[in-house]
């Protein structure tokens, strides 16, 4: 399986995962005397911070995803292979892939996290989460078809159930989804329907804890809540969802009818974390050594959402893109020092460049150390930061164009339904229509 | 199901299908005293002439598809419903939908055509056709994954089978697909692979008849063949494909190994055509009256790819977008005259505005009456015409940007794989990757 690369005398570094962490590590190894194999089960890197825009029909998938091979085409030290890592044999230094085995001299595990349902996996079919492009397509399809079904429905109660949307979880993803749904219902769709009125839609954001966006200062989370309510979102704090089915949710003991429920509440680390033999935290994240290596295995590093790292101030390093990038780069630097002269580098320290969360049209919150912003100014900072970090000049241009368009017209250009709806009669949506 | 519209005294016109024919009819009825219900099983109108660009990763799906409701939002006489027409009861004047019954006073059937396998439906899973966005995603996935599989494969013979591509059918779609595949293999991908060389790809275009693009003059079809071969496509004329399976195709009696086969050979009319009781041609198209009405049913019209119409010169009206638009408009005009004073209008006459077919980068053929163009000039005409006809200003802008980008960089921006590959081990491509 190694092909003609086996004759290469350079140490072989295997990177599992082509997200922010894996890519940063691959890039940082460019000046090292190593050959790198990057494994991902997808052919593309995904700009996850904008995934909610695909789910809400504002951006097309190719605008936020780029082929890993294309990103790394000039990094001649890197071979990209599309495959899935199932397990790691730490003693033999071999990764077990779905299509074979791959020996390594050093390993960087960056397989990330996915959404989790706190032991209620049966909720997944009623309340899809948002981690992949397929997830985004599922959410887009459900949201758009809910309005179509409302237009077909004559019974007022059943129609309202199609116009009720529940978003579970008040973190960044939940806030973004709820704010955008409100914009769609209030501004994008009303003129297009003749029977059901999209403005009758209820967007309910349910959070079990006492505040939205817990990573932000209390006054900013309060501002976020007020901005959301101004956009038309109903926010329910301190409210646990105790059941979900096709008819709606249970809010504590009260049933709430809603045909569309979106899940933005829980995160679980990639199952590969538990295969590495080291202690993991409650979410399955690996408790790594200060240099991000796997305890007892200095040639193995764990970075990104899969790693559990505590900062000097006692807080956990958050599961965000900048943290994953910093960790990927740090692991590569540590590995280079080790290969060069066996030396160790200083422990990983997370540099907090600030927190940003968008809420909706001209509404956001931002926090940079002591500087706090909200509303229009925060929204502009968010917009510029996200366009600047998008990989690829073309993507930046297209996303800017799409957003300018959406801003001026209230239109969302990716409002197409493909695939089949799992909830309703699939006969109405055949594959070969 | 009719909702509060039943109290509306205006005649109710039902249009089945939101393609070029159905949309043109709906628009033309704007100044008539009727109410219109447009039914489509999709939520979007598809700009089918550019579908091959989505299949070959050059355009994103939202660039060539727009929600029917959005297109018709200012046409207040039109209600759009997402549903599938299963049958028509001509005596009771009712359309049977998957979700109920819909009575009509006049009916315009514009449900189009799909690809057909000449009695070999078992070939479909090995050789997908191209009519819907899902078809385009399937082709895109198969083409991109074939190169990924080649990169994973050490056995030279097996690797070559992943690098062999067969396109069946030498009409416009086949020519476009083959020309673009050659560009991808020769220009887009080579720098990104480390083991398999995409330039080793063979693109075989197989046509059972004696020439490509049969709608064009003989010297232009010959020029098209030469341009294709210059781009790197191997053209086989007078060659019948007698079998297709996962390993490749049979060309007459010779097996040709190819893991990727694309179908661009046959067209069959929507099955609804045969439910209308009128004679149909071999492809299932309805033989309509000169005014496009269904013989014996003056309040029912059939337009677009579903209608079989013979021109004054004895040729059939071709199954192209301009013909469908002209027919949709003609049926609406005929219906308006009939509703106004019971009069008939003159028979439908197809106005041939010329034929255009693109072959690849700076290569195309065009024919306008006696004027024949090929090469770069024809390509520019094709480019401008297709951008001009694209629905929506934003789509035009984005498509122009995408093409300018692709032209200068040889990159194709929509090179992302989503969904699961039916041919290979789906374990390597799980839904929640």
What can you see in these coordinates?
Chains A, B: Its EC number is 1.6.5.9. Chains A, B: Keywords: FAD, Flavoprotein, Membrane, NAD, Oxidoreductase, Transit peptide, Transmembrane, Transmembrane helix. Chains A, B: It catalyses: a quinone + NADH + H(+) = a quinol + NAD(+). The structure is a homodimer of 433-residue chains. The first copy, chain A, is of the alpha/beta class and 433 residues long. Chain A folds into two domains: 3-41 and 83-112 and 270-341, 3-Layer(bba) Sandwich (FAD/NAD(P)-binding domain), CATH 3.50.50; 116-266 and 354-421, 3-Layer(bba) Sandwich (FAD/NAD(P)-binding domain). Chain A is built from ten helices and 25 strands. The first copy, chain A, has helices spanning 20-28, 51-55, 68-71, 133-152, 156-163, 172-188, 218-231, 321-341, 376-389, 393-409, and strands at 12-16, 35-40, 44-46, 65-67, 78-82, 85-89, 94-97, 100-103, 106-109, 113-116, 164-168, 202-206, 233-236, 241-245, 248-251, 254-257, 260-263, 266-269, 286-287, 293-294, 297-302, 307-308, 355-360, 363-368, 371-374. The first copy, chain A, has a six-stranded mixed β-sheet, with helices on one face. In chain A, helix 1 runs parallel beside helix 8 (321-341) and helix 4 runs antiparallel to helix 5 (156-163). The longest helix of chain A has 21 residues, at 321-341. At the A-B interface, strand 4, strand 5, helix 4 and helix 10 of A face strand 4, strand 5, helix 4 and helix 10 of B.
